[in-house]
Amino acid sequence: MLEHYFPILVFLIVGLIFGFVPIVIGRVLGPYRPDAEKNSAFECGFEAFEDARMKFDVRYYLVAIIFILFDLEIAFLFPWATIFKEIVETEAVKFFGFIEMLVFIAILVVGYVYAWAKGALDWE
Predict the structure, then answer these.
(1) Of these four, 55, 56, 99, 100, which has the most CB atoms within 10 Å of its CB?
(2) CA 83, 87, 88 angle in degrees (round to 5)?
(3) What is the predicted pLDDT for the residue at 47?
(4) How far is CA 98 from CA 72, 75, 84, in A?
(5) Backbone angles phi, psi at 11, to 5 degrees
(6) Which residues contact 54 (CB under 8 A, 6 or more apart)?
(7) Bridge partners of 121?
(8) DSSP assignment of the chain, as one string?
(9) What is the reported pTM?
(10) Rounded to whole angstroms, how far apart are CA atoms 94 and 91?
(11) Which residues of 55-86 are buried (b: 16+ CB within 10 A; e: fewer)?
(12) What is the pLDDT of residues 66-75, one digit of tens each?
């Protein structure tokens, strides 16, 4: 039973080696000469003029969350599209598969219309 897990163990060990060995080699063999300029904050070639912890508008996060939500929901269309030919060819599943996808797309449209009506997609 455990011999089935041996390739996974080998894969993990090789992955860790490829991940950590270059870091260790760089740390051991690379020069380490810190000075004030190297340790200073660097942002686009000039000193930061505002606090890094400034507040963002909530609408920015709202648009980001809506994008992720709809992006993930659209990703659920790909498995359906890959077996679409099988769905159409099977008489018992043909109508059910079509109705299921219509319900899924209807839920997407209702969510989109709701976000639009609430003004979540407006940007000033």
Answers:
(1) 100
(2) 120
(3) 63
(4) 20, 17, 9
(5) -60, -45
(6) none
(7) none
(8) -GGGTHHHHHHHHHHHHHHHHHHHHHHHHS-----HHHHS--BTTB---S-TTPPPPHHHHHHHHHHHHHHHHHHTHHHHHHTHHHHHH-HHHHHHHHHHHHHHHHHHHHHHHHHHHTTTT---
(9) 0.49
(10) 5
(11) eeeeeeeebeebeeeeeeeeeeeeeeeeeeee
(12) 888 888 888 8
Rounded Cα distance between 104 and 78, Å, is: 13
- For 41-51, how does the pLDDT look when each residue is reduced to its tens digit (9 = 90+)? 766 666 666 66
**Domain map of the chain by residue range?**
2-117
Tell me how far apart the alpha carbons of residues 80 and 97 are, in angstroms, rounded to a whole number: 9
Structure tokens given for 98:
């079509």
Tokens of 108: 């997407």
